[in-house]
Specification:
A: mainly alpha; 3% strand; B: alpha/beta; Rossmann fold; binds adenosine-5'-triphosphate; binds magnesium ion
């Protein structure tokens, strides 16, 4: 467990760390929504802002890039699918598929949006303690009827708690299989099958052990929760984010 | 005074396997007891009855006059457990959060939690690591973190399942030192192990388990020489007819 993944909390004392999580959560959702609506200039604006924040909160960029390797495959896949499926003026025409200008444009935009959203998420997770996030989610869900807000919040914080564990185990299993020459098998489906099952089983076992350890320490849903206090800065930042999102969309 | 009283305790698993079989045992407050036995002899199964993680098929466990079945929450507060796998018992994103997990579950006030956490971290010498990520600690530090986690709940009985597995020599000494200090401070200590070498010198009582039964129970000096009959290696020194020496020296 020595090398940690990017998708987890990073201790720090930046303004983002100190921000009230309810406001941070709202800002994150606003940014993601604005991203979906934004065009290239809006996206560029957000990417620049995210870049500055990434450096500001001192996220280890080299690790981040390594972690996002698999995500880039997904992006590539989306890009290719989009470029081929969008009708328009042909760019390259092979026997039965056509790559269109509109498709390339469209695919690039979609990929850009996806990566922006992922980075917004990464920054949010890196600067937010799961316990605080849990309290914030609970607070937002409280006005909704028929939603068991405490249970939903616990589940969310557990998912975040487990992300690094699953990734770490996937990596360990992959290494163990490499040591036994799995790279000689070229079929990616075969390799996926061989890695998915052991990782799943190990994740269940770890989850089980964790559940017992939590039980042993009196785990209940009704716990002392983190006290949230909003200050003037939180309102200022939220105002800034709203302004920024409007800028992005128009 | 007996802090733990176990009467006719049996546990049969759903698949028919017998975990423990008709165990009777009393432990006095402040005792230091080592449970030894081969893999599968039932040590972990027995321990998990002390705080109600497992429900007995038969029999009762009484903690300081109150049965575990009647008040499992009290049992969990009273009996703190450190598990074999140090990684899978980390719940917090920072050392501080992890120690605070127990007191938060007890519903204590924020300022009391803060006080308990800092006391517990002081007790295991981890105060300077409060903001670190627990997964980045060394093996010995992770075990000490787990100990702090149960100290913060105010546990009187401390139960350790294989506390030295996966540790290097300095790690073993750190954890052992911690356990001995806590014993001197008045805690009741229970340790399960199949490796007597490291702890036996500090134990007051040695219990051998085999196939879910307690087969020997007495002072280490008396029953240590029988260890290898029960599949547990005797400490080096006692094989040569000498007294075992503490790992802390
Ligand atoms: N969940 C389970 N389901 C079925 N049988 C189990 C389960 N857990 C333990 N057992 C069985 O109960 C018996 C006692 O196991 P236990 O884990 O208590 O032994 P142990 O003394 O702690 O061994 P180790 O030194 O390996 O930790 C073993 O025979 C084991 O196979
Ligand atoms: Mg065991």
């Amino acid at each position: 467990m020595a090398s940690m993944t990017a998708f987890s909390y990073l201790t720090g004392a930046s303004a983002l760390h100190r921000m009230d999580v309810r406001f941070k959560l709202a800002s994150m959702i606003l940014c993601s929504l604005a991203t979906v609506k934004a065009q290239a200039d809006g996206l560029l604006l957000l990417t620049l802002a995210l870049g500055i924040i990434l450096v500001y909160i001192r996220l280890p960029l080299n690790i981040l890039i390594r972690e996002l390797r698999y995500f880039s495959f997904l992006l590539l896949f989306v890009f290719i699918a989009r470029s081929l499926a969008t009708p328009g003026e042909p760019f390259i025409k092979l026997s039965f598929v056509t790559l269109t200008y509109e498709g390339i444009n469209d695919g690039a935009l979609v990929c850009w949006r996806l990566s922006n959203i992922v980075f917004v998420g990464i920054i949010f997770v890196a600067t937010t303690r799961p316990s605080a996030l849990k309290t914030a989610v609970e607070w937002w869900l409280r006005p909704l009827p028929f939603v068991p807000e405490q249970r939903v919040a616990v589940m969310m914080s557990l998912v975040i708690r487990f992300m690094p564990v699953i990734l770490e185990q996937a990596r360990e299993t992959a290494d163990a299989q490499k040591a036994r020459g799995v790279e000689n098998r070229k079929n990616p489906f075969y390799r996926l099958k061989k890695i998915a099952l052991p990782v799943l089983i190990r994740t269940f076992i770890t989850a089980d052990e964790l559940a017992v350890a939590m039980d042993a320490r009196c785990y209940t849903e009704k716990r002392t929760s983190v006290s949230l206090t909003a200050c003037r800065n939180d309102w200022l930042i939220l105002g800034g984010v709203i302004l920024f999102c409007c800028l992005m969309v128009v | 005074m007996n802090i733990i009283e176990i009467k006719n305790l049996s546990h049969h698993f759903a698949d028919g396997a017998i975990g423990i079989d008709d165990i009777n045992l009393t432990i006095r407050e402040g005792e230091f007891v080592v449970f030894a036995g081969m893999n599968g002899s039932g040590k972990s199964t027995l321990f998990r009855h002390l705080n109600g993680l497992l429900t007995p098929s038969n029999g009762t466990v009484i903690l300081d006059g109150v049965s575990v079945a009647d008040d499992p929450k009290r049992a969990r507060r009273m009996v703190g457990m450190v598990f074999q796998n140090a990684d899978s018992q980390i719940v917090g994103e920072t050392v501080y959060d992890d120690v605070a997990f127990g007191p938060e579950n007890l519903g204590l006030k924020r300022d009391i939690i803060a006080q308990r956490v800092s006391e517990a971290l002081n007790a295991v010498n981890l105060s300077t690591h409060a903001d670190q990520r627990p997964h980045l600690l060394s093996g010995g530090e992770k075990r000490r973190l787990a100990i702090a986690g149960i100290l913060a709940m105010g546990s009187r009985v401390l139960v350790f399942d294989e506390p030295f597995s996966n540790l290097d020599y300095p790690g073993i000494r750190q954890v052992l030192n911690q356990i001995v200090t806590l014993h001197h401070a008045g805690h009741t200590i229970l340790i399960a192990t199949h490796d007597l070498e490291k702890v036996i010198c500090h134990a007051q009582r040695l219990i051998f388990m085999k196939a879910g039964n307690i087969i020997r129970d007495g002072a280490p000096n008396d029953n240590l020489k029988e260890a290898e009959r029960f599949g547990v290696r005797a400490p080096c020194a006692s094989r040569f007819g000498k007294e075992p020496v503490s790992w802390l020296l």
